[in-house]
Amino acid sequence: MALPRKLRNCKKDSNHKEVVEALRSAGYAVHETHMVGNGFPDLVVGIPGPEGSPGINLLLEVKSRVKWIFTEKQLRFLSQWPGLVAVVSSPEEALDLCKILAQNNH
Question: What's this model's pTM, rounded to 2 decimal places?
Answer without folding.
Answer: 0.85
